[in-house]
TrEMBL record:
InterPro entries given in the database record: Diguanylate_Cyclase (IPR050469), GGDEF_dom (IPR000160), Nucleotide_cyclase (IPR029787), Rev_trsase/Diguanyl_cyclase (IPR043128)
Organism listed in the record: Shewanella vaxholmensis
GO molecular function: diguanylate cyclase activity
Chemical reaction(s) catalysed: 2 GTP = 3',3'-c-di-GMP + 2 diphosphate
Keyword terms, alphabetized: Membrane, Nucleotidyltransferase, Transferase, Transmembrane, Transmembrane helix
Pfam families for this protein: GGDEF (PF00990)
SUPFAM superfamilies per record: Nucleotide cyclase
UniProt-recorded name of the protein: diguanylate cyclase
Residue ranges of the TM segments: 5-24, 36-55, 62-79, 99-116
Top-level taxon of origin: Bacteria
PROSITE patterns per the UniProt record, alphabetical: GGDEF (PS50887), PROKAR_LIPOPROTEIN (PS51257)
Name of the top EC class for this enzyme: transferase
NCBIfam families: GGDEF
C-alpha cells in the first residue's frame, strides 16, 4: 500500500461523485465567481492537509481521525462547489453537505486534540530527559546550574559534595552493574534524607552535590554526619554479595556575598579532597581548612 493510498482513494471517490451529480445537469448561468473562488481555495487547503497529515502515519489513531476529518471536509466542500456550478433541488443534498462538514470538523478536531496531547507528552519526556540523570533520576549538572537561587547572609545555604569511597574498586570487583546499583540506592537514601526545599544533583561519576537551603555551617555539618552514618549503616546487597559503602563529604557555606556559587562549590570540593586524604568516611568543613591554614 502506497503512502498516499487513502488520499488518492478519497480523490477518486470525490471525482466520481461529482461526475455522477453533474451528469445530465446544465451549468448555472448565474455563477457567483467570488463564492466559487473561495470554495476552490478551501478545497485546495483541505486537499493539502489531507496529504500533509501522512507524516502522522506512525500514530494510526491520530492519522485515522485526521484523515477522516480532512477527507469529509474536502468532499463536503466539493459539494458546495457543485452547488455553485449547478442547481440541486433535492433537500437531502444540503443535509448531506452539512453532515459532512459537521462530521469532518469533529473528527479533525479530535485528531488535532490527540496530536497536541501527544506532543505535550513528548515535550514533558524530553524535558525530564534533559534535566535529570538517567540512572538515578536526580537533577543533572546542567539542570542544577540553570536553577540557581542566590543566597544571602540572612538566608545562608550550604553546599555538600558527597563522594563514594573506593567506588572504582566496586566497579572493578563486582562490575559496572554493581556500581550502578550502588549509585541508584545511594541517590534514594540522599533524597529521602533531605527537606522539600533542598536539592540534590548527580554532579559527575560517583559525586553528588547537595544544596541545603537556609542552613548554617553547624546545621549542615550535623546533617552531613547523619547522612554519612546512614549510608555507612545501610545494607547494600548485590547478587548475594554484601557491599560495604561509605562516603566522604565536603561542606561549604554561603557566608560571604563576594563569593559566587561556583566559588562556594569549589571550596566544598577542596573540603572533600581533604576528607579523602584524611582517611575517607568523614565530613570536612571548608571553614576548618581556612583555620588550619
Amino acid at each position: 500500500m502506497t503512502r498516499y493510498f487513502w488520499q488518492w482513494l478519497i480523490l477518486i471517490i470525490s471525482a466520481g461523485f461529482s461526475c455522477i451529480m453533474l451528469h445530465g445537469k446544465s451549468i448555472n448561468n448565474e455563477i457567483n465567481y467570488y463564492e466559487l473562488s473561495l470554495e476552490l481555495i478551501r478545497s485546495i487547503i483541505w486537499l493539502f492537509m489531507m496529504f500533509y497529515i501522512s507524516y502522522t502515519r506512525h500514530n494510526r489513531q491520530i492519522y485515522l481521525w485526521l484523515l477522516i476529518g480532512c477527507g469529509s471536509l474536502f468532499i463536503g466542500n466539493n459539494m458546495n462547489i457543485l452547488d455553485e456550478l449547478s442547481t440541486f433541488e433535492a433537500s437531502y443534498y444540503q443535509e448531506v453537505e452539512d453532515l459532512l462538514f459537521t462530521f469532518g470538523i469533529l473528527c479533525a478536531w479530535f485528531g488535532l486534540y490527540q496530536l497536541i496531547q501527544q506532543q505535550i507528552t513528548k515535550n514533558q519526556i524530553l524535558n525530564i530527559a534533559a534535566n535529570t540523570d538517567p540512572l538515578t533520576g536526580l537533577l543533572n549538572r546542567r539542570s542544577f546550574n540553570q536553577n540557581v537561587e542566590n543566597s544571602t547572609d540572612n538566608n545562608p545555604s550550604a553546599y555538600l559534595i558527597l563522594d563514594i569511597d573506593h567506588f572504582k574498586q566496586i566497579n572493578d570487583t563486582y562490575g559496572h552493574a554493581a556500581g550502578d546499583y550502588v549509585l541508584t540506592k545511594l541517590a534514594k537514601h540522599i533524597s529521602k534524607s533531605l527537606r522539600k526545599q533542598d536539592r540534590v544533583a548527580r554532579w559527575g561519576g560517583e559525586e553528588f552535590l547537595i544544596e541545603l537551603k537556609h542552613c548554617d555551617s553547624h546545621t549542615a555539618q550535623l546533617k552531613a554526619e547523619q547522612l554519612r552514618t546512614l549510608i555507612e549503616r545501610s545494607d547494600f546487597h548485590y547478587s548475594g554479595q554484601y557491599l560495604s559503602i561509605t562516603v566522604s563529604i565536603g561542606i561549604a557555606t554561603v557566608a560571604n556575598q563576594h563569593l559566587n556559587r561556583d566559588e562556594i562549590i569549589n571550596l566544598a570540593d577542596k573540603a572533600l579532597y581533604q576528607a579523602k586524604n584524611g582517611g575517607r568516611n568523614r565530613v570536612v568543613l571548608a571553614s576548618d581548612l581556612n583555620q588550619n591554614e
